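Notebook entry, structure prediction.
Reason for the run: the old model in the group folder had no record of what sequence produced it. Starting over properly, with the input documented here first.
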Amino acid sequence: MLIAHITDTHITALGALLMGIVDTASALERAVDAVNRLDPAPDVTVLTGDLVETGAPEEYAYLRALLAPLRMPVFAIPGNHDAREPMREAFIGDGYLPRQGFLNYVVEDYPLRIVALDTLVPGEGGGALCADRLHWLERTLSTASDRPTLVLMHHPPFSTGIRRMDQAGLSGINGLAEIVRGHPQVERILCGHLHRPIEARFAGTVAGTAPSTAHQIVLDLRPEARLSFAFEPPGYQLHYWRDGTGLVTHTAAIGDWPGPYFYSGKPVTS
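New structure, fully documented this time:
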């Protein structure tokens, strides 16, 4: 099974640039094109939050139009820039979101089970896994303990050393760790929020973030560093799962690059 993973698309209203400089819509168009050109094609694409910038219904309408060319099913979860009810309204027709409450859900139709967790706290940059959400996760994982599972969530359950982003991190990590540790079928926890590819061991599995399809947060581990972003190459991840092997994650940059050049043992000529 192949899972394409894009995140932190931050779509604004039609014609608007994020912070006056980032063309997030064109960036998502390039990401969609890159995913559509993959051969073999992914079975699904997952989006791990911060789909839009302000949570406005018109942003979600624009997002849906930009995602429409994707040739495979799409499953999304909210991030801190999203708004639960407008997102629910935008995606409810796809059949996987609940009609009320947290935007938690399960996708059972593939060899790898997909369990999505809503970490949104309205009005806050950080996320949370409250008792209700943790109980839902425990029940959900317990119903299929023999099935390899991906968990999707926006906020990563680990500190990165990027101080300002860690300050807008996730609460409820200890409860999450206890649940995941008791369910070794969890192959990976896929996250967003960090606008960089970062991985860490977590509760007996691996948790990681994917790069943004648009702008990247600058890698600066100084405690006094200001939060900043740069136009490093945007990207996505491709998660490759095989029975008996487990999950392998590839991080790919989006762009036009020289090549491919095929190995022949001879100098490359144009």
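Summary: The chain has one domain: 2-253.
The old model has been moved to the deprecated folder.
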